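Comment thread on ticket #2218

A.B. wrote:
> Attaching the input chain for the structure job we discussed in standup.
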Amino acid sequence: MGEVSSPSWSLPKRIGFRFLFSFLLLAIIEPFGLFGQMTGLSRIAGQWERLVKWIGQQVFQVKITVLPNGSGDTTFNYVELACWVGLAVGITVLWTLLDRKRAAYVYLNELMRLVVRGYLALTMLSYGINKLVPIQFGSLRLAEMLQPIGEQSPMGLLWRFMAASPAYTMFTGFAEVLSACLLLFRRTTMLGALICAGVMAHVVVLNFCYDVPVKLFSSRLFLFSLLLLAPDLKRLWHFFILHQPVEEKIFPPHFKSRGANTAALVSKVVVLVLYVTMVILNTTPMWLPKLTGAPKAPLHGIWLVDEFKRETQVLPPLSTDKQRWNHLIIEGVQFRGSDASIIGVITPMAELSKARWQQCKIDETKHTLTLTAFDKKKDPPPSAVLTFARPKPDQLLLTGTSDGKPVEVKLHRIPDTKFPLISRGFHWINEYPFSR
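C.D. wrote:
> Ran it. Output below, let me know if you need it in another format.
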């Protein structure tokens, strides 16, 4: 399709557009990203990985050993960004040599905006739904109630701050979902981009200030929202700053046929509904127990050790003792694609902040409790096999073996009300500030 009649772009603008188009295309369809997985380009991830590693070794003199994982700010990611820039420069030079007579790129510019809108909308939908549920930040765990705040990482502190208030997490998710829905339609793109820019500016600041390793990706989403806003910046300036009237923006139909335009609108709505449904279904094992109020695990709670006997010897609560327990914490944790699992957490006296997380199996019929260390590669034997009794609801007696030695443990449950972070709740009236 040829370009419609339009004012000629200057040479710098044409060159800038070629680079921007090339860079955005590479950043969006990269094999490890969302579109790479949706379009099947993830199949070339191995070749791309080898190329990035080779560039890192030959150009930047760095050896890449870690691929993108929970961290999006790995050495691989930074070298990959440099590869995008280098490839975009090369494509721009070749494009300029082969297409020197082109006066403007009207249709290609619209296509670029359409792709960016779709990419940004789907990404914001994914993150937003995971906050609306909310599951992105999980729930406050009982073991975290005993962790000194000074020993938490900045990212861990931010995650617990968000998890402490599901209402606030849901509010941020609503803003992300709203911006995504508005981005899907031309008439509401400017408003959606404005909301998205505000939301992502906040996310970028949090990621940088709390050292969350999603700095590159969140910054990219923020810049994408600014790119969509760029054509309307002048109009926004005149309206909000100069308080001057602005001309009406005309949105010509995509197609000459009314039926085709209706079909395009319906297809957008269908894609939106299907994508939201897919995300919700994929996360069902994580949010359904919260919604339905799944019962807590047997023996759920933080149990403080009152007496610890090992091989008939009562061990005093010495801060240097690595064998004596200080707490036993039992909590149900929901994992993706599996039934509720029970976690047993032991805090040794000498390492109160270094909890030993283990898989816990409780048989209420036989009154047995089995702890097994997590090891995906092996099938380790149980680290503790214990029989339990509860003389009172808040008391627990354990007898059996731990680390191959016979033990007898007496414990009592610490009530949740001792921890204001999970028991304080919401109050309309506060006669005095409650800050601890």
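A.B. wrote:
> Thanks. Noting for the ticket: Confidence is low (pLDDT under 50) at residues 334-340.
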